[in-house]
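Workshop exercise sheet. Pairs work together: one partner reads the sequence aloud, the other fills in the structure field after running the prediction. Swap roles for the next sheet.
Pair: D.N. / O.F.
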Amino acid sequence: MSSDAKSDMTASEMTVRKFLKQLGVTGHQNLSDALEDAVRSGVVAPGSDLPVTATIEIGALKFSHVVTASLKAPDADG
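Structure field:
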């Protein structure tokens, strides 16, 4: 993103972007680790499909956003 585009963002937009970036980075790292651990320990079969639901809530706004998908477990070799 260019510095001009960043300077055009409001403080509100910047905080939302920072939250979503943090959510994405930490969520990705934690999910990857959990999936690899589950396959390694035999809890989940390699390559199996796992349903996932993520919910973001802002209580003060009575806002809730739910995303559902299916994740594929990694192969046994990672």
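Discussion prompt: The chain has a mean pLDDT of 92. What would you look at next?
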